[in-house]
Amino acid sequence: MTRAGRLLGALATAAMALLLMVTSLWGSDDLFPFVPFKMYSHAHDLDGWSRVTRLELVNAEGERFEIDDEATGFRKAELEGQLSRFREDPELLGHIAEAYETAHPDEPAIVAAEIWILRYELEDGHRTGVEEDILEVAWTENGLDL
Hints:
By secondary structure, the protein is α+β, with helices and mostly antiparallel strands. 36% of the residues lie in helices and 30% in strands.
């Protein structure tokens, strides 16, 4: 490698290292891969509360079931990341119900979709047995009550 090539490589490496340091301090997840994802960049307290978010659907036969990422193509991370949007506009859950119906045409129609959050207490990183299940957002077809 020529001297100019080595110099260019060293400058590029230094610029990348500087960019990574600066964006790690002041950047947001939108700048990935130049910043660490916030969910991986800090330790969680081993004592306190943790939570698990889940999406449940209810079909026309009254069956309630939890769906995973493959059922609709809508990932759990997206659900958690857009929770505030679902709170503001529960009708958005109707689109997930439609996606499920499209992917499962032989199944009964979906009449409701709900986002639940299971909160559980941790002590020394282990569950204490204290937990609560909270209905965070609900959508029903035609605004019906279940």
